[in-house]
Write a structure and sequence with these properties.
- It comes from Deinococcus humi.
- Keywords: Transferase.
- InterPro entries: Glyco_trans_1.
- It holds the Pfam family Glycos_transf_1.
- With about 350 residues, the chain is an alpha/beta fold.
- About 40% of the residues lie in helices and about 15% in strands.
- The protein contains 13 helices and twelve strands.
- The protein has a six-stranded parallel sheet, with helices on both faces. Strands 9-8-7-10-11-12 form a six-stranded parallel sheet, with helices on both faces.
- The chain is globular and about 60 Å long.
Length: about 350
């Protein structure tokens, strides 16, 4: 019997970690039971208590923990660790979150049968940080959901009118946290000389208590914070944008660039961590620590229709290399191997 640690399913869908857990769980062909805490354990601290003390007592078989953490006393387990940003950049996270992960994760990693991760970058970081055997860590990439696809010009116009989106805009999609580098993005936007008057920057995302702030302190003119956008509207938003701007400082994978490429939307993203693995040669890669690099890329993408067309075509082809069905199949195969 396979059990799935469903702690992340109790929260509203806002992160790539939650998306991963849901997409894989829905596609598994093997019999699996998802266990998740009741409302009594809805806070972060009580959620850890449920995961560490109550979940193990319900288990009579193999466990898959898909969302970065699992019960440290349960050895018959595969855990998916998306990244170790909390070790590489502890300053980005709240004191409580840092303490929990620094206390629990090293023990969990030593005890579990196998570790899954989502990119070769994260795989190498895990091996180095925790002195692991390379055979104990497997990287299986994420994918864009099937609803992320190109739209016709007429469908884009209808979506723009329905939602009240501006006619011309660049898009940022990320949680509001320091590592997403929104501060430099907003500074570059503000410093843009002769920026087209009608152009807007739409920022999708919400803040979380696990992070040390949202990464910026003011919103310049021409920028709109949309908060959380429903899953049904997000593909249209990508498709309507002139480009996705994703200058993240650190990613275990980075789903938004892949989702944008699957919609035929050009992408500006960072040349660091896992992001070059995801986008290949299908995006404009920038140094995320240099605002001038970000500004020049935004100028290029808005002023050169031919460049947008080339990146759109390359991005569509690149996105076809990733599939949730294939990710689920490879994950299922690994879980079956480790369970026996």
């Amino acid at each position: 019997m396979l059990y799935i640690n469903g702690r992340s399913f109790t929260r509203k869908m806002t992160t790539g970690v939650q998306r991963y857990a849901l997409e894989i769980t829905e596609r598994l062909n093997i019999k699996a039971t998802t266990l998740q805490p009741s409302e009594v354990f809805s806070t972060a601290i009580s959620g850890y208590i449920w995961e560490q003390l109550i979940l193990p007592s319900s288990l009579k078989g193999f466990l898959w923990s898909p969302s970065n953490m699992g019960p440290i006393l349960y050895r018959k387990q595969v855990v998916t660790i998306h990244d170790i940003a909390v070790f590489d950049h502890p300053e980005w996270f709240s004191k409580e979150f840092r303490l929990a992960y620094h206390l629990l994760l090293p023990t969990l990693i030593r005890r579990v049968k196998h570790i899954l991760t989502v990119s070769e970058y994260s795989r190498q970081r895990l091996i180095k940080q925790f002195s692991l055997s390379p055979t104990k860590v497997t990287a299986i990439p994420l994918a864009a959901a099937t609803q992320f696809k190109p739209l016709t010009a007429s469908e884009i116009i209808q979506a723009r009118v329905r939602h009240g989106w501006p006619e011309r805009f660049l898009l940022s999609v990320s949680s509001l946290e320091p590592r997403k580098n929104l501060s430099r993005l907003l500074h570059a936007w503000e410093a843009w000389p002769n920026r087209p008057e009608e152009l807007r920057l739409l920022v999708v995302g919400t803040a979380s208590k696990v992070f040390a702030g949202q990464g910026f302190d003011r919103v310049p003119d021409g920028v709109q914070l949309l908060g959380r956008v429903e899953d049904t509207a997000l593909p249209s938003l990508y498709a309507a944008a002139e480009a996705l701007v994703y200058p993240s400082l650190y990613e275990g994978f980075g789903l938004p660039p892949l989702e944008a490429m699957a919609c035929g939307t050009p992408v500006i993203t960072s040349n660091t961590t896992s992001l070059p693995e995801v986008v290949g040669d299908a995006a404009l890669l920038i140094n995320p620590y240099l605002e001038v690099s970000l500004l020049q890329a935004m100028q290029q993408i808005t002023e050169q229709p031919q460049l947008r067309a080339e990146l759109s075509a390359r991005g569509l082809e690149r996105s076809k290399l990733f599939s949730w069905d294939r990710t689920a199949t490879e994950t299922e195969r690994l879980l079956l191997e480790q369970a026996h």
